[in-house]
Design goal:
Strand content: 15-25%
Largest sheet: 7 strands, mixed
Distance between the termini: 11 Å
CATH superfamily: P-loop containing nucleotide triphosphate hydrolases
Number of domains: 1
Radius of gyration: 16 Å
Helix content: 25-40%
Number of helices: 5
Order of helices and strands: EEHEEHEHEHEH
Strand order of the largest sheet: 1-3-4-2-5-6-7
């Protein structure tokens, strides 16, 4: 199983000319703003400062590449759905996402992060449908599960799976604060690499 031992930030990119196009496999993380992407990356790397976290939604505006064990890149994509961002900023984020998915030839898997406390937004559903249409493999990851009781989590998983028409047994359950889900994510990555 993959161990996240040697993890380091490589670069940020805002357009296709800056994307890494070497032969190293890529695993991307996407989700709406403030879903916990940076927290998941830091949990995996066991380094609270590797990816910048913020309580303010919409901070990830670039494509951020992290080298993991010189085996693959973990790619933090811009968050979507932040209502207070200016329209031109939102359009740039969307454009950057489109370009990344279109031109990243070594993309092996996308983790779509969903906040376990909330129902999927229209943008979450659009993202999943986009990946399906493009034939890009994806796995759904529920974040912040420690904020819910077991019964609340179970009920939310049932409701989320109905909205996105996804088998509830296929979610990866995570909590960055409790370091839950590391092994499941590592096994999933290994399967797709």
């Amino acid at each position: 199983m993959i161990r996240f031992i040697n993890c380091k930030f490589i670069k940020s990119a805002s357009k296709k000319e800056e994307f890494l196009q070497d032969n190293v496999p890529q695993v991307a993380i996407v989700g709406r703003s403030n879903v916990g992407k940076s927290s998941i990356i830091n949990m995996l790397a066991n380094n609270s400062k590797l990816a910048k976290t913020s309580s303010t939604p919409g901070r990830t505006r670039l494509v951020n590449y992290f080298d993991i064990n010189k085996q693959f890149y973990l790619v933090d994509l811009p968050g979507y759905g932040f209502a207070q961002a200016a329209k031109n900023v939102k359009e740039q984020w969307d454009f950057t996402l489109d370009e990344y998915f279109e031109f990243s030839t070594n993309l092996k898997l996308v983790f779509v992060l969903l906040d376990s406390r909330r129902m999927p937004s229209e943008l979450d559903v659009l993202m999943i449908n986009y990946l399906v249409d493009k034939g890009i493999p994806y796995v759904l990851v529920l974040t912040k599960t420690d904020k819910l009781s077991k019964s609340e989590l179970s009920e939310n998983i049932n409701n989320i799976s109905k909205i996105i028409r996804h088998n509830k047994e296929l979610f990866v359950i995570t909590s960055a604060s409790q370091r839950q889900g590391i092994n499941e994510i590592a096994k999933t990555i290994e399967k797709y690499l």
